[in-house]
Amino acid sequence: MADDHQKRIAIIGAGISGLLACKYALSKGFHPTVFEARSSIGGVWRKTLSTTRLQSPKSVYQFSDFPWPDSVTAEFPSQDEVLGYIQAYAAHFGLAKHIKFNTKVLSINYSGAAEDETAAGDVSSSDGKWEVEFSSGTESLAGSEVFEADFVVLCVGKYSGVPNIPEFAPGKEPEAFQGRVIHSMEYTDLKPEQCKDLVEGKRVAVVGFQKHALDIAMECSAINGKENPCKLLYRTEHWNVPDYLPWGIPLPKLYFTRFAELLVHKPGEGLLLSFLATVLSPIRWAMSKFVETDIKHKHRLAKYGMVPKQSFLQELSTCLISTVPEKFYDRVEEGSIVLKKAPSFNFCQEGIEIDQIQQPVIEADVVIFATGFRGEKKLQDIFRSKRFGEIVVGSPNAVVPLYRECLPPRIPQLAVLGFSESISNLFSSEIRSRWLSELLDGKFKLPAIKEMEEEAAKWDEYFKRYGGEFYRRSCVGALHIWHNDQLCRDMGWKPKRKNGLWAELFEPYGPMDYVCS
Q1: Distance between CA atoms of 32 and 315, rounded to whole angstroms?
Q2: Pair type for strands 414-416 and 337-341
Q3: Angstrom distance (rounded) from CA 496 to CA 513
Q4: Per the record's keyword annotation, is DNA-binding included, yes or no (predicted)?
Q5: For the CA atoms of the chain, what is the radius of gyration?
Q6: How far apart are CA 375 and CA 157, in angstroms?
Q7: pLDDT tens, residue by residue, 111-163
Q8: Alpha carbon 117 to chain centroid distance?
């Protein structure tokens, strides 16, 4: 292009990733436009349950150039505090004027070279354009408009939009149930008084065992107590942590250091690193057991039959670690929350049928699915091109194939931010946004398509090796430093950010280590 800085960049979503992509695009002199379907910024933090708190310590969940205010003292801030922090960041850098609120993107379509001739590597191409079809306010599809962009950044997230609902036997779907069935997405959108009206005095069953399920169960148990205990149905036990201090040692000192990553086989590692990961595997096993024993002790997991079969490392490697709400197991002890293992279940008129000898039917008035979202489906459906939609999600037997967890190699002039997770999604989204802005600014070139696909395949092998049955969750949780090193080398930055060998090996890495290039 005559002047690359005249590029029009369309950013879809004004959550954490969208705001960061906008901020760093502006820092390079580009012209970003952010499309946000809601009336405000914040993504999933815009509206959550009152009991929801940050899942990682605030020290690793902060902007590198905008620290938390002194007024926020909690290690795991509340929803209001997190949202306030995000809003303050957007105000500080003047991002709101670049956001089109109440604007829903209906589809994106690439016009230019034939699809089989395109590649993400040609980010400076002037031949192709993206057509972003959107509707504003209450306008219908008939009243939609088109925004032409040189580059598109998808920041649609994976924890909203398309609910993940289990499949059921014919005739035993939710329609067979005489009560009410909703997804946690709908529950979260309710006002507090509406939530209370929905569950008060009713038999409630919550399906799931991740953070949203635990928070909803806590709310229900607080309203109904032991008189109408909340039944929490789960398929798999998880190592949900009580805090980040296993046996008094900060968890980041165990797992967020270079030494911890020496214990894990890494994508693209050489013979020496492979040898070290193999030889040091007993330490890897011992560290995982060390954390597991702490969780078992504090939560009394054996007493409730809640000891997971998988290791803590496997859960960290798939970003399944979440903090348990305070006094959750006290509610289990008193009987206001009842845990029920249900690998599979169906609906009947009275409630839920599970495969158990005792009490095969869980009678209920309200069933709340806290079973997550279909992030791949949401990502796929935004493309008007069926082929691009299939390319972006890849094989059903692999993770979403993104080079550097950002770029689909065979889709031109497009990036995906915030889909691949880490120990702190803000942390990872920021450095990826910086990497993308440097790429668009011409500071480095991408390798050939085949090389990018091979690199993505190496990460897929890593995910499969350490993720087990959960491996399709794109997550660099146990290798975030290795991932950041790759991005730093691309940008021409120094990967090692600490002072001295001891600090480099044993001090945790966080956002403040990447303040300067």
Answers
A1: 36
A2: unpaired
A3: 9
A4: no
A5: 23
A6: 7
A7: 986 555 555 545 545 579 999 999 987 555 557 899 999 999 999 988 888 89
A8: 32
- Spatial strand order in the sheet of 351-354: 345-347, 351-354, 361-363
Q: What is the side-by-side order of every strand in the sheet holding 145-149?
A: 103-111, 129-136, 145-149
CA atoms lying within 13 Å on the CB side of residue 244: 20
Amino acid at 480: H
Flag whether pLDDT at 284 surpasses 80: yes
Closest CA to 419 of 374, 371, 465: 374
End-to-end CA separation in angstroms for the chain: 27
Q: How far is CA 282 from CA 137, 289, 451, in A?
A: 58, 11, 34
Q: Percent helix, strand, coil in the chain (nearest 5)?
A: 40, 15, 45
CA dist., res. 175 & res. 409, Å (int): 42
d(CA 484, CA 480): 6
By the 8 A CB rule, do 235 and 343 touch? yes
> What residue ranges in 283-358 does DSSP mark as E strands?
337-341, 345-347, 351-354
As a whole number of angstroms, the distance between CA 474 and CA 408 comes to: 14
Helix 425-440 to helix 16-27 angle (10° resolution) is 30
Structure tokens at 389: 């939609």
> What is the tens place of the pLDDT at every residue in 169-216?
999 999 999 999 999 999 998 998 999 999 999 999 999 999 999 999
Neighbours of 305 (CB within 10 A): 9
